[in-house]
Amino acid sequence: MHILVCGGAGYVGSHTAYTLAQHGHEVTVLDNLSTGHRRAVRWGPLIEADLLKPESLDAAFAHPVDAVMHFAAKSLVGESVADPYEYYQHNVAGSINLLRAMRHHRVQRIVFSSTAAIFGLPSSLPIDEDHPKSPINPYGASKWMVERILADAASAYGLRSVCLRYFNAAGAAAQAGIGESHMPETHLIPNILKSALGEGTALRVFGDDYPTMDGTCVRDYVHVLDLANAHVRALEFMQTHDGAHCFNLGNGTGFSVLQAIEAVRSICGVPVAYEHAPRRPGDPAALVASSRKAREILGWSPQQCDLEQIVASAWDWHRDPAY
Q1: What pLDDT score does 250 carry?
Q2: Fold classified for 2-169+223-249
Q3: Catalytic residue among 11, 87, 139, 210
Q4: Which residue ranges make up each domain of the chain?
Q5: Distance from first CA to last CA of the chain, Å, rounded?
Q6: Taking phi first (over 0 means left), then psi (-120 to 50 degrees means alpha), and beta for anything else, what does residue 236 get?
Q7: Active site residue 139
């Protein structure tokens, strides 16, 4: 099939474009390159367009498109709190512009990149799809709004959609020359790796008094190529299933901040310096996914579950990044 990958120059988008090509699909990337990387677009043409400029989207549909994968979004929690208008405009209004363009060009299938942030502070673990949705920041709220829009579009227009709610994406496909590179970098594992390389600012561990095994936050890390594979499975699922569907994607195992630091030390063979800092407001003690629904319905399960295995793949890329 011909897949339009919106945000395909970014982290998860580029790994999904790579995986789609590995499965024999034709890929076109749409990206405004505000946070993505031109050199990460390697498996099909790049169309520079902006979801906030609807007139720029038509070029992406000049060649018939079978389905869309939508990764394009702003995704920094703190930034969303400071500037919510910007987040609702990009993540919600931009998505509506894309959906209107799809409807105009009669494209009836979309896989949407959602997030565990829609759940807010968890009331129980592991978190399944029926857990209450109570986002505590505009980023999570904007993603939840798009999920609601997709459900309404299924009823009104017959749009088929799958929302994939990631927990903590990590790792890289160094063999394909792609990895995780954000500016600024807010994710834990790449920041630990930067510390091991002597790059960036001092590593800070926020909170050491949580009710966890070592007092630091616990998160569910899932390899980015496992996430990419879930997108391919979602594409296959939509071939035979109408309606709007949602799946949580995680490893199903939680790892603490200190365990992640130790995994990096073990893989890199160097000590990782860090300093403790106060808790950040709104940080849950633990976030762990139940991916049972994805296993049962999509036939998906993560293949790279070991934290050191995930870290090793990221380390391979960070030692010699392509961009």
Answers
A1: 96
A2: Rossmann fold (3.40.50)
A3: 139
A4: 2-169+223-249, 174-219+252-319
A5: 29
A6: alpha
A7: yes
